[in-house]
Amino acid sequence: MYAFRYQTASSAADAASRLAAHEDAKLLAGGQTMIASMKLRLASPSDLIDLAGAADLRGITVDARGVTLGAMSRHAEVARSAEVQKALPVLAKLAGGIGDRMVRNMGTMGGSVANNDPAADYPAAVLGLNATVTTTTRSIAADDFFLGMYETALQPGEIITSISFPIPKRAAYMKFKNPASRYAMVGVLVAQLADGSVRVAVTGAGPVVFRVAAMEKALEASFTPAAVASIKVPADGLNADIHAQADYRAHLITVMAKRAVEAALA
Amino acid sequence: MTVKVSMTVNGKPAAAEVEERTLLVTFIRESLRLTGTHVGCDTAQCGACTIHVNGQAMKSCNMLAMQAEGKSITTIEGIAAADGTLHPMQEAFRQNHGLQCGFCTPGMVMSAIDMLNHYPDPDEATIRAELDGNLCRCTGYHNIVKSIQAAAKTMR
Fold first, then answer.
1. Is residue B83 assigned to a domain?
2. Residue B34: which domain range?
3. Is B12 part of any domain?
4. B122 in a domain, yes or no?
5. pLDDT of B76-134, one tens digit each?
6. Is residue A65 very low, low, confident or very high in pLDDT (cuts 50, 70, 90)?
7. Which of A50, A147, A210, B126 fits A151 for a cystine, CB–CB 3.0-4.6 Å?
8. Which of A5, A32, A76 sits opposite B62 (nearest CB)?
9. DSSP at B64
């Protein structure tokens, strides 16, 4: 790991001003990707600004409109929150399936969403549940947030403060995980939103989380496993690596979507 | 540049001047000479470096010492009783032959204690799922699962 200056931020605004003061500064949320990247010298910030002490980035609020998670909500907190389990069980379950118990005790929602790893779980929840990302400067709709591999709509110096998830009618997330890393080889979140519209968000399969319009249309007509069972997603542009070829991932999308619909109806 | 880091380790205050990039596991092993916490993969996958930070299991190879500033750390050296009586989890691993080479064992024990804090009476499937972050290359996990089940009985 290259040397850097370690700083602590007392609030989101404090973090933003520290970030603005150093061009090559980076934020440290849970650090479960950041520290590993720095150890591999894939990242070499001049300054590392620890957000753990920023109280305004924490907290879970549940009301009639939905669930709002502070950016520094740890995966384990979300998974164990009785309120989230009750209001939005799909999110508690998704958070409880990230990495392993030790990673979940450190890793944060905001860190995961800002990093936008192609195989991360949270992007599927944000896009599939039509969440809104709130930052230090604005609110960003999920459809506008995830731009490409590790690329988001966040501008330099902009910090995620919270994410609000509206309560859907029903939803479920199914992940075919890599047995070593527990990252999604393919993860599909299917949600029937309060207005009856359906979202199908796929993570792990492509360079960035994406929606499958054909499946959404079919599920809006009939929210049944059979509706998606024969819908194939083209393998063009999907990820191919030592874990799975693109056509295998394409196949898994249909399988996971079908299982997610089954689980959402259960 | 060096900075002063201080925390409570196994109930006692501990401090050192370290480089800001010092990992928590390096602080524990090299500054404090508590070498029971192991570095296995060094990539946050194997769990040999698992310790408790404010009572929660974390991987000390994947966090900075500075992230533990002011916190309360427990390592494998800190769980037995003052008179040397093993922690029930350690005793269960001993009684059930829950280790062979022993390299992963400190992390397994620390992770398993955290597991039982959240699942006091776990079934086998839960134990195996919750042990996701700890790798053992000797035992095939069978006796580790048995050890945790036995410890759950005595710790309840």
1. no
2. 2-78
3. yes
4. yes
5. 999 999 999 999 999 999 999 999 999 999 999 999 999 999 999 999 999 999 999 99
6. confident
7. A147
8. A32
9. B
Residue A115, CA distances (Å) to A177, A238, B33, B75, B151 in order: 19, 19, 35, 31, 39
Residues of A in contact with B118 (CB under 8 A): 80
Residue of A nearest to B21 (CA): A3
Q: Are A52 and B67 in contact (CB under 8 A)?
A: yes
Instruction: Note whether B12 and B57 are same-domain residues.
Output: yes
Structural domains in chain B (count): 2
Which domains, from first to last, does chain A contain?
5-50 (3.30.43.10), 55-166 (3.30.465.10), 170-265 (3.30.390.50)
Size of interface A-B (CB pairs under 8 A): 77
Q: Are strands A47-50 and A5-8 parallel, antiparallel or unpaired?
A: parallel
ipTM of the prediction = 0.95
d(CA A196, CA A223): 10
Give the best residue of A6, A32, A77 to mutate against chain B (max B CB count within 10 A).
A6
Report chain B residues touching chain A, CB-CB < 8 A.
1, 3, 19-21, 23, 42-45, 47, 50, 53, 56-59, 62-64, 66-67, 111, 114-115, 118, 130, 132-134
Query: B113 and B147, same structural domain?
Result: yes
Q: Tens digit of pLDDT for each residue in B122-148?
A: 999 999 999 999 999 999 999 999 999
B9 with B72, same domain?
yes
pLDDT grade, residue A179 (50/70/90)?
confident
The closest of A66, A77, A90, A74 to A164, measured between CA atoms, is A66
